[in-house]
Amino acid sequence: MILHTQRELGPLNTLALPGRAARFARIETAGALRDPLLAQEPRFILGGGSNLVLGGDVDRLVLHMAIPGKRLLGEDAEAFYVEAGAGENWHDFVQWTLAQGWPGLENLSLIPGTVGAAPIQNIGAYGLEVGELLQSVTAWDFERQVEVGFNRDDCRFAYRDSRFKQEGWHLNGRLAITAVLFRLPKAWRPNCRYADVAQELLARDIAAPTARDIADAVIAVRQRKLPDPARLPNAGSFFHNPVLDAAPAAALKAAHPGLPCYPQADGRVKLAAGWLIEQAGWKGKALGPVGMYEKQALVLVNHGGATGRDVRRTMAAVQASVSEKFGVALTPEPIFL
Ligand code: FAD
Ligand code: EPU
Q: So what's the pLDDT on residue 46?
């Protein structure tokens, strides 16, 4: 095991924020995690750095998860069971499953990051959350020095949430996910509920889409709306869409009829944070080098040379504006390190 010191993390986070790791190791096998050198604390587990706000230098051991591998573990009458290593690129993995003829994950095309990070916030897009097709997670528990497994119910998935976050393991580096197993049902049906995807398929004159058609539609919608981090550094949606009880949501909707509202199964209502931020005047507006994207107000962007402190300043200003105008508190989605 090679331990690097003072490793620059700027190229390893999609907001391109500066900072160095005091200690750093690249993890290419699950077995490498058993090395006693890695038992030291504090620790942080890093994937693709696409949901991260780096506050500056990090006085921790940073483990960069690069475990490769993807394979069909088995199949039965109902489903294909496909496993991938934590370091696999998420989008490449999804495209590979489609090419093999195992549909299901197509709505999650083009989400940046790694397979190992996908369960952490239960990544979701265009009407699908990864928890719906996840069978189990394998991880290394540094505290108990054992391999542990979680089935789907153990993971306690919710909107942008999981047990891994609820227990704080995503912050203290106790648990490193090494592999994820997916169950992709053979009885596939297209999932085109999301208006943007339905409209894109209509514009392409596709009435009975294949999984590949849906992936292509999702990719086109995302490329139109979301900035490519390689060109304009960002971390995707910067805030969660707030979920309110029915009564306050109805009152807000009455006062602001244009507000997009999505009723949830539990009776609560999800609001579009992007709309609130745009109405508060932040779409395309910046404070110093950090602003909200001109085509999607929910995406915070680094126009160049920003630090973690600049990000926090713009974040706080946006939260204050939305709270003042709508009385709604916005909570950030990325992890602060
Ligand atoms: P990191 O940013 O490296 O880490 C995120 C968290 O996961 C950290 O707490 C880290 O400690 C933990 N972690 C990472 N790997 C492991 C591991 N192997 N074991 C244990 N803990 C680990 N998200 C969505 O849900 N839907 C979207 O549509 C979406 N669109 C995006 C669009 C853009 C342009 C960008 C930049 C981001 C978007 N995101 C979206 C957010 C991001 O892609 C996801 O959160 C992704 O899962 C993060 O993966 P990562 O490997 O980069 O994780
Ligand atoms: N809207 C505005 N102005 C804006 C942006 C959005 O009015 O500047 C309105 C849109 O017109 C639409 C509504 O807000 O009526 C929702 O917008 P959109 O469909 O773009 O989705 P979102 O709520 O902004 C969420 C996820 C994304 C995910 C998309 C597609 C969260 C926090 N964000 O965005 O996830 O890709 O839906 O499912 O839930 C991420 O988590 O990083 C992420 C990108």
A: 98
